[in-house]
Specification:
The protein is mainly alpha-helical. It is built from 15 helices and no strands.
């Protein structure tokens, strides 16, 4: 993994953890996330216009934009269903861990990427760290009766969510070879915002949607800027390194989220979160060396 890719991934992880901190204080998380998509479209419209006028988009690029918008909409809907049916502490690591675990197989199988032994060890370490951070104290219970765990609808939705993470990671790796990463990210936000609008208004009603904006206009704007920067940094990193390396390394955001929780929110973290964070950081270090 190149030095510039590592720097971009680390900055992305910090930005991702920061906007999730703002999300945590929202009154309605689904509506908040939808509004930040719309805010990105508004705030970065001048940048998108400049990029369109100067470079444009080749015809194949539009197909990748449509595809990634569809996958991200599916990701959002599956994630919502996951949290309806499953406890966050169980579902989150399954969703976030499945994606990085699948990406190397897709990267090698579809994109002919080469993964060093050290980097593969780093990927396995990161995935292990995710489950350690969130399943601490429950891991023996889960493995004692895995069939019961797998029969739970929340588990199935979490696994499908992880599959969509792997799919959009690999899809976007190819997509940015046809579209400027910043413009790609902007049009992704536009497509996702438009595609999710019917679901948001159907589930939450227009008054509820307006209320979230009136209560959190500034946090939504801040989260929009952080989100745009976070994924733009990831897309830029994909220009220099394998998606098999970048996707797992993105989970360094979990480490930053624990640090922000302790420093900003004064939260008390359990042994699992600390151990998991150390393991994830070690995995990122191994990928960097690989």
């Amino acid at each position: 993994m190149t030095g510039i890719s590592l720097a971009l991934v680390l900055l992305s992880g910090l930005a991702h953890a920061s906007w999730n901190l703002l999300l945590k204080h929202s009154s309605n998380q689904e509506v908040f996330v939808w509004w930040l998509q719309i805010a990105q479209v508004i705030l970065f419209a001048p940048l998108a216009m400049i990029l369109l006028l100067n470079g444009g988009i080749e015809s194949r690029g539009w197909w990748f934009i449509l595809g990634t918008s569809f996958i991200h909409i599916l990701y959002f809907l599956l994630l919502s269903r996951t949290y309806i049916h499953a406890n966050f502490s169980l579902a989150y690591p399954l969703a976030r861990g499945t994606g990085p675990a699948l990406v190397p197989f897709l990267g090698v199988g579809l994109l002919d990427e080469n993964i060093t032994l050290l980097a593969m060890l780093g990927i396995i370490t990161i995935v292990s760290g995710i489950f350690t951070a969130y399943w601490w104290g429950q891991i023996f219970e889960i493995f004692r009766n895995p069939l019961k765990f797998l029969k739970d609808p929340g588990t199935r939705f979490a696994l499908l969510t992880g599959v969509t993470i792997a799919c959009y990671s690999v899809w976007d790796k190819v997509g940015i070879s046809h579209v400027n990463p910043l413009l790609y990210n902007y049009l992704l936000s536009l497509g996702t915002g438009i595609g999710l609008a019917p679901y948001i208004f159907w589930k939450h009603s227009i008054p509820t949607t307006r209320k979230e904006l009136s209560l959190n206009r500034l946090p939504i704007s801040g989260a929009a800027i952080l989100t745009f920067f976070a994924y733009s940094a990831v897309l830029s990193a994909l220009q220099f390194s394998n998606v098999s390396y970048v996707s797992p390394a993105r989970e360094v955001g979990i480490v930053f989220s624990v640090l922000l929780g302790v420093i900003v929110l004064k939260e008390r973290v359990n042994t699992g979160r600390v151990a998991g964070s150390v393991i994830i950081a070690s995995g990122v270090f191994l990928i960097a060396l690989g």
